[in-house]
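Incident log entry.

Two folding requests arrived from the same account within the same minute. Monitoring flagged them as a possible duplicate submission, but the sequences differ. Recording both here for audit purposes.

Request one:
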Amino acid sequence: MASVYEIESRDEPYLGLDEKEAKVVHEQAKMIAVRSAVSAVCHPLMQVKVLMQLGHEPYPLTRGKVWYFFGREAYTLPNGFQYARNIFNERGFTGLYTGVGAALCGNLAGAIGSIATTVYIDRHHKNLGGTQEHTNKEERQLTDSESFRRFVRFAIRESVAKTVGTIVARPFQVIMIRKIAQVIGNEVKYTSVFSSFLLIEKEEGFYGFFAGLVPQLVGELVTIWALHGAAFLLERALVTIEGEVEEGTEDTEEAGKSAVSLARKSMKIMLPFLVNNFVYPYSVVSTIMAVSGSGLAVSMLPYAPTFGTWQDCWNYLKADKHMKRGAKIFFRTHDGPITVGRDNKIYSAAKKYYP
């Protein structure tokens, strides 16, 4: 495969890309490779998260402090790593990687879709979301109005690219979720990625590939606009503070700049965490709706009701206070009803299927 340096030396476009586009795609390709490797390694935790989001809590509860060493007494659920260990004990190493093929295909398809869309709109719709006049300026060089227009432009363009990537990847994500979900009822309905495609098309038609797409898209778009919007407001506030700091003495100016720099770094760390926590319920609803219409045990009573729309699912989870299923790996408490199993251990009393 030609390197980026070989691409730069050619006069003709590479894969239809000019020099600038080829560099961007090359960098994105490296990021995709890294993300795919990380996704493969961390897939057991992804599987655990999906099972938690589906409400599958078949393992014994323990009694202890909410925060391990302090806090109120409560029944606690296994943490994410203990949950994964239980899966390993039941189904072996390969059981930890159920659905990994579909997950990797989805990551690759989604990334390619987003990159291709970005290249397309950069080439053919340069002014989508607004003109390019302020795109390369520093924040402090812009007025509030100019900064706002740039924020809107970036958010719109990222929204378009993310929407395409999400739609392209959704069929693979549906397959991954269903392959994991069928473990709950000890079923073997979805096997390979290809056969799963054929099965979904036969039983549900085209729309089956996009089960749960809408809540996922809503979550993705809210994330983009919330991150860009919060960053815009905070950056403008920091620019104002910087201007006031520069009018002070040399000592106060240096201390002020350090404080502003620290605030920017903290913002980049905290904002994604806060926004993701806010939109997490959309991920839960999307996962549950992905098994809707599948005929799997987890999609029917007594495990769960059949939802006509994703809003029905949202309202059901909200009423039961289950909007944050799977949001935490550690410090997982159970405040619902309990039951005693045949082994005399304490379990969640929720309806479930045991392997």
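Request two (distinct sequence, not a duplicate):
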Amino acid sequence: MRYSVLAKGAKRAPPVMCVAACELFGGNRLAAFPTACALEMVHAASLIHDDLPYMDDDPSRRGQPSNHTPAMPSSLSAFATLSPKHQSDLVPETRILRVIAEIARAVGSTGMAAGQFLDLEGGPNSVDFVQEKKFGEMGECSAVCGGILAGAGDDEIQRLRRYGRAVGVLYQVVDEVLEEKMKTKEGDDEKKKKGKSYVGLYGVEKALEVAEDLRAKAKGELDGFQKYGESVVPLYSFVDYAVDRGFSVGASS
């Protein structure tokens, strides 16, 4: 668990987004930390699943051997499946039921699990669904949990939901573009991932158009939080970070 959750090079995007969303509505970041830690565990478990031989079959993650490389795949699958279930011990008591329900929804049969299944079994037209479920759900859940912990209103929660989903997919699309450009630069086009992606289906140029649409959508949702002033800046920065991979709280556009 330490090897995966505390791995060097991890961006910690889900927990940071949760804390930023909590603080947007005046919540205490210390109250968000247990949930933020649980979200990072869920995220790590999802990456373990993605790297397994029957999925992307990636031998490395963040420059280090993937979890299944030094470990037996059978025990690894058990860890990846069980990790999300421990989060009920980590979230704060305040609004605990809503937070647990949100995380359970995100990882369950209508969320990330559905995305994993269709990534393997669905047709090429399922790419939108796969991307939203596998990657959008994590961003959505992270932002929404932060809002719930701070007592955000229903309309604000829905806006966070749309924002987080857009950022989650945006991050993945940009990852795919960067990976494709790196493979082209190095002349390595032999390995084809089994999963579905915008780059794999439409190519880099179309994927970049999708990324720009997602960036505009995410920032459009945040425009509804202007009344909170500078507290919304970190969430704006998340959008630019997804594209530019440089985090700054000094500007909101």
